[in-house]
Every structure is written in C-alpha cells, then in structure tokens.
C-alpha cells in the first residue's frame, strides 16, 4: 500500500492556519540530521523545540517503544501499568518529589500544577487564597488557564473574559514580587530559564529569595521546567544548579524525547489534595509514553551525558562568538547547557526569522525566541563534528544575509 503523496502546499489547503511551517517537509531523521522529501540533508540544532533530547531514531528509544508496542498500548487510568510505575519511581528517586502525575504535554502538566495549587490553598486556607503570580514574558502553555498565567498578552487576548486571580511581575525582580505577594497568594510560578521569553536564566539569588517569600506567605513555588528539564542544562533539572527546591515541578518536551508525555512532580502533603476524581487525563501515564520516557531518563541521567552537555555548550558558545567576531551579528550568548539564546546585535535586531530561513537554505535548522534572539536546543548527544559543520553552515547563511 503506497502512501498518498503530499506536499507543503497541502498544509495551506488542509490545516487550520495557526502555524506557518517552513517550505519543506522532513521525512526521516537519524541522530542530529534530518532529510526532506527531496532527500536534502539538514543539521538539526532546533531539536523539535527542545524535545528531541537524544536526536532522531535513537536505537535505545526505538527498542523501548517497539518492545512495549508488542505488549500493551493503552488501558486507561481505571488500571495502572508497569512502565508508569517504573518511570514514576525513577523520577521520584532523582528529584525532590514524592508523587507524580502523568499527562501528555507541557500545557497539561502546568494546568495540573495550577489546579493543584488552587485546590491545596482552598483546602488548607479557604477560597480567598487563590492568587497565582507569574512573570511577564513567561510561557506556560496554550490552554485557557496556562495562557492566562503566561505573561504574554498576545497569546491570551481575544479569547473572552480573562481568568481572575492571576498577577504578573517582572522576571528576576524580587522587589516587584514583594509588592504583589500576600496571604491570598496560593502559588508563584517561574521558569528557571525563560524559554519563549528569550532564553533568560533566573539568578540563583532571585530563586532563593522567591523560595523565602513563598515560605513566608505559605504559597507554593512552582517551577515550569518543560523546556529546561531532562538534562537540557547539564543537570537533570535546572533547579539543581541553584539548590532551590520547588513544591511542584512540571516536565515535558525532552521527557519523552519526541513521544508525547509530561509529568507534574510534587510533595506528598500537596499531592494529597488531588483525591480520587479531582483531576485526570485519558492518555496520561499510558504504557507507550512511559516506556519511552523511562529509557530517555536512564540514558540522560548519567554523568557521561550530563557532562557532555556542558562541553557541547562551550563548543557552540565559543563557535558563535568566533563567528560573530567576523560577522558582528551576536551581542551575547546566554542560557545554560544546550538551551542557548544568541542575542542579536543592534544592527541585526528583529531579524531572527530571516536568520532561521537563511540557515534552512544552507541545510541548518535553528529556532528563534522572539525577533531578537536565535535559539538553539539540539540533541544532548549531538556529535561534535555536527556542531562544527553546523557552525560552518550558519557562517555561510549569515555571510549571505550580510551581503
């Protein structure tokens, strides 16, 4: 049976127009390279937006998926399953958490976190303790609740009445939080590294001060590690660099290495407020997703891989600055590990999309984080030779743009 031939133009005819994909369709991937319908090869520094932690078609993931696919796909949460219990056990052993809830996407994990925070506060302090404080330019998902908590109005406007009880303060600004937090605050939500907001890491002192304020006002501290978690920063989760522990942590993206799965991790006393029937997810904790994520965790949470992330960061950061010495395109390199933001210099401001398109024409996939930042989130095990080749292709793309 032959698959029907489709082209990029079919997207514009068939799909809801909320995306603007590039003008080629990838059909195959291996390691940190992908090939399109014409057989053209690209080096992938985008990583499916920080998802493909082990690149494409990793043999260990393939083995875990096919092994589980021959056994059990779905049973619903009327029953539990072995992969879910094994994965939960390993996540708990590796983190601050005592309990895990599985879902399918970062937005769902954050939705669960925000609902749990409000339910915990309702049960322990009363209905008036419902304020959630988040940061401007944050991103927490696309559901109505998560897009309201996210601090980017362009994503929440035009969808009817705004949800109440949500406040926003500037990121990395403890004085601003002090002005807003109160006894009615149930949770403060922070990305340890703002991803969509421009790849901006939080200061460790700031995170420690937020933790102190949350304790003072009996509010939960939620870390959204959807983009920064699962080895991306050189530690299993970004909070581990600061030594500041949250009460709730959300993970997705790299957790499944490309298979849709997310997790909300929390402490036992907080988890107790999600009693039977209070929250759920039909596919959450399904055997396929959990089997793949368990294998990803086994591979990523090793000294070899985590140390390698730091080495690869250095290669990329040094290479980008060397490139910028010849073509002054980047003002600075920020981020942590393999979540990198290359901030465009004044002369190149607003051109992140053009750089992305020019790079693609040279066989290189990169991302943007706003109009002024080129974002890189490649495989955590990208070969060093691929990094060197990627920098050469980027140099060619930028030279073409610079004229």
Automatic annotation (TrEMBL):
Pfam families: Aminotran_3. N(2)-acetyl-L-ornithine binds at residues 142, 281. The keyword Transferase applies. Keywords: Amino-acid biosynthesis, Aminotransferase, Arginine biosynthesis, Cytoplasm, Pyridoxal phosphate, Transferase. Pyridoxal 5'-phosphate binds at residues 106-107, 139, 224-227, 282. Its cofactor is pyridoxal 5'-phosphate. It is found in: Cytoplasm. It catalyses: N(2)-acetyl-L-ornithine + 2-oxoglutarate = N-acetyl-L-glutamate 5-semialdehyde + L-glutamate. Homodimer. This is Acetylornithine aminotransferase.
């Amino acid at each position: 049976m032959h698959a029907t031939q489709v082209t990029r133009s079919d997207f514009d005819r068939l799909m809801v127009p909320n995306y603007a994909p590039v003008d080629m369709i990838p059909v195959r991937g291996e390691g940190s390279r992908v090939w399109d319908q014409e057989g053209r090869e690209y080096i992938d520094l985008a990583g499916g937006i920080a998802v493909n932690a082990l690149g494409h078609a990793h043999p260990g993931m393939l083995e875990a998926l096919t092994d589980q696919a021959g056994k059990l796909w779905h049973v619903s949460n009327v029953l539990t399953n072995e992969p879910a219990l094994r994965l939960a056990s390993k996540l708990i052993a590796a983190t601050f958490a005592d309990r895990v809830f599985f879902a399918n996407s970062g937005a769902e994990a954050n939705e669960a976190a925000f609902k749990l925070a409000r339910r915990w506060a309702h049960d322990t302090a009363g209905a008036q303790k419902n304020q959630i404080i988040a940061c401007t330019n944050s991103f927490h998902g696309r559901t109505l609740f998560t897009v309201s908590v996210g601090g980017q109005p362009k994503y929440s406007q035009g969808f009817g009445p705004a949800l109440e009880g949500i406040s926003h303060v500037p990121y990395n600004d403890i004085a601003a939080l002090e002005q807003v937090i109160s006894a009615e605050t149930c949770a403060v939500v922070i990305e340890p590294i703002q991803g969509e907001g421009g790849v901006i890491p939080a200061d460790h002192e700031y995170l420690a001060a937020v933790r102190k304020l949350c304790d003072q006002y009996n509010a939960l501290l939620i870390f959204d590690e959807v983009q920064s978690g699962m080895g991306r920063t050189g530690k299993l989760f970004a909070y581990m660099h600061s030594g500041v522990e949250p009460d709730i942590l959300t993970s997705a993206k790299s957790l499944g290495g490309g298979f849709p799965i997310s997790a909300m991790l929390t402490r036992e006393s907080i988890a107790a407020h999600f009693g039977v029937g209070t929250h759920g997810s039909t596919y959450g904790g399904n055997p396929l997703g959990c089997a793949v994520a368990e294998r990803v965790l086994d591979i990523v949470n090793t000294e070899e891989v985590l140390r390698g992330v730091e080495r690869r960061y250095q290669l990329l950061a040094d290479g980008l600055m060397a490139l910028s010495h010849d073509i002054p395109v980047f003002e600075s390199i920020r981020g942590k590990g393999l979540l990198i933001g290359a901030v465009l210099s004044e002369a190149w401001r607003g051109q992140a999309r053009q750089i992305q398109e020019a790079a693609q024409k040279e066989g290189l996939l990169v991302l943007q984080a706003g109009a002024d930042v080129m974002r890189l989130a490649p495989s955590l095990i990208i070969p060093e030779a691929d990094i060197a080749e990627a920098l050469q292709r980027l140099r060619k793309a930028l030279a073409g743009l610079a004229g």
